[in-house]
User: Fold this.
Amino acid sequence: MTKPAMRVAVTGAAGQIGYSLLFRIANGDMLGKDQPVILQLLDITPALPAVKGVVMELEDCAFPLLQGVVVTDDPNVAFKDVDCALLVGARPRSKGMERKDLLEANGAIFTVQGKALNDHAKRDVKVLVVGNPANTNAYIAQQSAPDLDPNCFTSMLRLDHNRALSQIAAKTGKPVSSIEKLCVWGNHSPTMYADYRFATIDGKSVKDMINDHDWNANTFLPTVGKRGAAIIEARGLSSAASAANAAIDHVRDWVLGTNGKWVTMGIPSDGSYGIPEKTQFGFPVTCANGKFEIVKGLEIDAFSQERINVTLDELMGEREGVKHLLGK
Ligand code: NAD
Ligand code: LMR
Assistant:
């Protein structure tokens, strides 16, 4: 029997990530090959003609799972009854800009969208914020939606997680698929802390296999942390297909579960590992039955604590910088 369609809102639908993302959602890569979807696409008014062009292309793919498409410049329409919302729409960073430069430009978007989600989305909506600065935007949206469970709101650290997987696969010569128990702590920014201390490949410790603290501190972490900037430098545009891919991975795992495997999600802290409650922070999680759960009880050594403190301090600074948007 055919399942009822799930409504998926995507903001910034005319943008470059949107162009990689929408076709994969409509193809069943995110919610399953047996799950019909209705896409609810939001962009600003001047971008609507471009969104309509993308919709023509979606139609021309004749995706069997795509049951409808809504195009709008009104968040109240875009988020009506949605099961999932991917908040991509925001101004991307250009050469020389840091994420904090985006705070002011993009923060205001997320108060409006948080409120619209609060008023119109399903009560168990799964929201993923991709638009940068992703953690703080997710925090703003969550704070603007007092009637929704804070755990409806997540932010994207999965691209950092996937980047880290790829670097470790290259270093060890082992396939990406063999690496388990990797995680990325903190902010989606160069301060993130990709942590392979608990990671295993075929049951063996990745830390022991690599056994090179200098590589960790001076090659691996800077490579993963500065990857976004390296892509902007090389392409003249920020990452798009890999960001869309990470968004698909994040929502798929949240909705369909991880079978006990660890993944990284930016989620509102429950106070674990000393991270203040509600801070949108990258944690190792497992997902089952549509819910995520933080992997608890991991030992945090001195080097890791120092890295976690740096990324947390940055997030606290960002939060301070958007207080005025939240009337605090
Ligand atoms: P883009 O400029 O190609 O597209 C952004 C789209 O958002 C445009 O169509 C724009 O009109 C739209 N938009 C702007 N304001 C809007 C609003 N208020 N409501 C709805 N739509 C709005 O940018 P992109 O390359 O697709 O990137 C989008 C965002 O994703 C950027 O903030 C970028 O920095 C971020 N990003 C995040 C990650 C991550 O890992 N978290 C990775 C890559 C990019
Ligand atoms: C990325 O990590 O590729 C994106 O967040 C884009 C950026 O500004 O770094």
Summary: Residues 93, 132, 159, 228-229, 231, 238-239 surround (2S)-2-hydroxybutanedioic acid (ligand 2) (CB under 6 Å). The chain has a mean pLDDT of 96. Residues 9 and 85 are 5 Å apart (CA to CA).
